[in-house]
């Protein structure tokens, strides 16, 4: 042991799967009362390392020292019983049960008749919630809580015993900025109570906000152990991807007077409870950013423009011609592409091949009497696999086996090969590693340069500001501001998306 | 960068070894079972592996096989049709009854229209009104039975002058020694197989069954695809009813009873997923043949015919288990 305060040390961990070295002599340590960030691209081995820690995988080599003793946990439950709690990106709560029931699920306190001791249950839950300074009652139904609060329930569940280490795996993926703040406060509170925190994330700004130290993994190897205060994003990125990443978000933008002809025009589009009286237009070769918090109605608006949702009122024009709202089939014919927010549920047929997914929109024009032109399909596939650098062993590979970034590229390719006039991208880089993210940003600019009108929806400020020529802010179903790239500042946008100036600068 | 791809995909499936095991069983196990079964039965009976017996089996399976092709589309598209059995009865009764009134050609048209109409109605309820296909078609099973009973009054219907019509050729005739029902089955196999694997329609069908939401988000007219699978299945049921009517030259209301069980068993046995999105026509053919040879073999080995229901159930459970196991990536839950 190097220092007494190290509560956990993973030494020389190597994990080989048949034919692959997933982890190669990785060292990882956490001290009491520190937030230790674990970063790396998708597939770098972060999850594998945590699986080794919790005992889901046993290491091929190396040892785990926990509280000064060599241990090997039998699985997440065993780890939890011994004070190591993992909180996953996907929450495992039962919506129909109360907060208290969820916290003690599987170990509900019982009275002498064997029935559930509701009083005791709620009292103990209340104590836990108070410790986390949560402002909701143990008797509330979990399904009614916001995601951030649900996450707190998940954390509270971990605290039912003495806990020494809490591992957060991508905790902010589905949180709004407000909710993120609450989470960070709670993490800080845990840290002050002496708990060791492992924080896994893609988002570098978060890591700088919350962590004390950072361990970087790349391709299963540990490439750095840094003190957060002594490093910066550039160093971190180059450690993660092994090369210096040029400041890729510094694109040349179009100004007010360089706008091309109008491609899409939305007029007074409304849907009760989702968005109200939305009007804007996008032009040839323009990247329009749409910034707003989750729940602002951004995705719903995009889905309505594409036609998978119907509107109550309003009109949509494509190149001057009115199009029927709510007919996605027609939209594709007209040249509108849509990369949805949820890759796996909305974007891909996971069980089908890369080829099938890539050509799914194109085949409507790539057939003779309904028969798919196989050779041309293959050529298009090769063309886009090459252009977008999609990494797959073969065209027949099931798309579910690709990494998140490559899956996203397949969806992008699906729409690019129909030569769209308008491309709508809803959170195009969520859950994607830094390298691919940069590629997608470059691609977006390239598409605009080729004359495509692009609508980018994102909750990441730097992304919206980095790629857009013009930015609309949306709050509570209404457009609250419009900014050209040169005048947009983070401050202005935040005002727009949080509704501080709602209605004050309405576009129309 | 090639190696890093491998790393990623392997990291994702920590239990990839088990998946492959299930995958192999699922892909090739059924052929193995088929061969084993044929060898087993032929060791116990001499007349099993004869040309005559083979043709007999093929003729016996052709009606169910034709409908199984439609059912394959149905399951790939992610829906069910339990009403095919009673639709066979209805169309057989219609074709026989109208034969003496309007002649064979018109009778065939009427039977086909009836099959398509029932399919369209089911398809409307499931596709456009988004109702659960199990409930819709399970109810329809009895509705059609009731209609058939109402129509026949529970009586046999038969063709009065069997010598004076060409109609019996469909069910009883041969071309180059091959029974015509088998030839029709063969043609339908080819058409359905080609459409499924080579056309836009086939690709859409897999997509809609594999992920209905993503299909919608890709601009695929999902409602119409679902609607069409019911029409297609209704059509195959009508073809089956016509062949059956022609073979017997008579019909009654319970002619197709229980067909849905055999047909769905055959399709699932072949490896088409109950969850939608995967399957193929050649697989269905193997499933159909297994059931056909099994029932033939059981009779030749002297077992009572109802024993095969038990065996068939066991086989179905096995096939469904494989399907589920390969989905969750391991054999046991």
Describe this structure in words.
The complex is a heterodimer of chains A (508) and B (333). Chain A is an alpha/beta fold and 508 residues long. Chain A has three domains: 6-241, P-loop containing nucleotide triphosphate hydrolases (Rossmann fold, 3-Layer(aba) Sandwich), CATH 3.40.50.300; 246-251 and 258-335 and 420-508, P-loop containing nucleotide triphosphate hydrolases (Rossmann fold, 3-Layer(aba) Sandwich), CATH 3.40.50.300; 353-419, no CATH class. Chain A contains 17 helices and 22 strands. Chain A has helices at 46-54, 76-81, 99-103, 118-131, 147-158, 177-192, 204-210, 233-241, 298-306, 328-334, 343-347, 354-358, 374-387, 404-416, 434-449, 461-467, 490-498; strands at 6-17, 20-31, 35-39, 61-66, 69-71, 84-87, 165-169, 196-200, 213-218, 221-227, 262-271, 275-283, 287-292, 313-318, 321-323, 336-339, 367-368, 371-372, 422-426, 453-458, 470-475, 478-484. In chain A, the strands form five sheets. Chain A has a six-stranded mixed β-sheet with strand order 6-7-8-3-9-10, with helices on both faces. In chain A, strand 19, helix 15 (434-449) and strand 20 form a beta-alpha-beta unit. Chain B is built from 14 helices and four strands. Chain B has a two-stranded antiparallel sheet. In chain B, strands 2-3 form a two-stranded antiparallel ribbon. In chain B, helix 3 packs antiparallel against helix 11, helix 12 (259-270) packs across helix 13 (281-300) and helix 12 crosses helix 14. With 333 residues, chain B is mostly helical. Chain B starts with a helix and ends in a 5-residue tail after the last helix. Chain B has a domain at 63-258. Chain B has helices spanning 2-12, 16-44, 51-76, 84-102, 104-128, 133-152, 169-172, 180-198, 200-210, 212-216, 222-248, 259-270, 281-300, 307-328, and strands spanning 157-158, 174-175, 178-179, 250-251.
